[in-house]
Design the sequence.
């Protein structure tokens, strides 16, 4: 079982969308039973809430439901998950403060962007308009697709 965790600030925009999109990629590739996927935030602002209505609106337009409820990152998540993907430098720094030794496990989701390899951060659309949510959807869709390819290739290399 491969365990993947997506992390942003409040767990209502980027990380739950990444979770939902990655789950969709798994479903389309008939790999759902091989993975556990979750998302969380570094802050406690929205614990228990559904994703931002704008995130859910955009996702729904692409046929994706988002039942996830926000939760905050816990230190044991470092041990629980094989892949921990952060959305930006702030998320990275916040988790590094939780455990600097285990922070080596953190990966920037944008490092899997096939279109912009030199960019590090997925922009936070929270304070912007709906256009920003569509842009973030496209970025995360591409990154999560590439992430799945990366994990599949890595798994194949390990089994050879």
Sequence:
């Amino acid at each position: 079982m491969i365990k993947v965790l997506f992390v942003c600030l409040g767990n209502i925009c980027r990380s739950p969308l990444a979770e939902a999109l990655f789950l969709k990629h798994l479903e389309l590739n008939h790999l759902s039973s091989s993975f556990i996927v979750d998302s969380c935030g570094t802050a406690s602002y929205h614990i228990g809430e559904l994703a931002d209505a704008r995130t859910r609106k955009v996702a729904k337009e692409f046929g994706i439901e988002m039942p996830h409820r926000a939760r905050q990152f816990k230190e044991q998540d470092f041990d629980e998950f094989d892949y921990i993907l952060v959305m930006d430098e702030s998320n990275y720094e916040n988790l590094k403060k939780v455990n600097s030794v285990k922070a080596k496990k953190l990966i920037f989701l944008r490092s899997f962007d096939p279109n912009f390899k030199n960019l590090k951060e997925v922009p936070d659309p929270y304070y912007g308009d709906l256009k920003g949510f569509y842009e973030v959807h496209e970025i995360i869709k591409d990154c999560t697709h590439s992430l799945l390819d990366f994990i599949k290739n890595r798994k194949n290399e390990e089994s050879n």
In short: Strands lie at 2-8, 35-41, 83-86, 106-108. The longest helix spans residues 130-159. Residues 112 and 150 are 8 Å apart (CA to CA). The mean pLDDT is 96.
